[in-house]
Amino acid sequence: MPRVPASFSIAEEAFPGQVVGTVTTTDVNAGDTAGNFSITGGNTGGAFAIHPVTGRITVAAAVLNHAGIPAYTLTVQAG
């Protein structure tokens, strides 16, 4: 499956449940939308969650540690 980069920014004061962004993909079969999204890498401390059907990424941690981890690079898989 090809990799398609997406970039989202959030404030350091982001709260649990706050939407970060939504990833999407389309199946090679015309009209089919791929789902079953999961975060497979880079989610240090479980800071983020992804809805398996919609691809919506939200903050899962009570506090994001901006001083200790200034940026996250998540790997998301669909399929």
How would you summarize what this structure contains?
The chain has about 80 residues and is mainly beta. It has no helices and five strands. The model has no long low-confidence stretch (mean pLDDT about 85).
Write the layout of secondary structure elements.
Elements: E1 19-22, E2 38-41, E3 48-50, E4 56-59, E5 75-77
Antiparallel strand pairs: 1-4, 2-5, 3-4
Proportion of helical residues: under 10%
The average pLDDT value, as a whole number, equals 86
Q: Strand-and-helix sequence, N→C?
A: EEEEE
Largest sheet: 3 strands, antiparallel
Strand arrangement in the largest pleated sheet:
1-4-3
The coarse overall form would be elongated
Q: Which band does the percent of strand residues land in?
A: 15-25%
Radius of gyration: 13 Å
Total beta strands: 5
Uncertain runs are none
Structural class: mainly beta
In whole angstroms, the N-to-C terminal distance is 9 Å
Helices, by number, come to 0
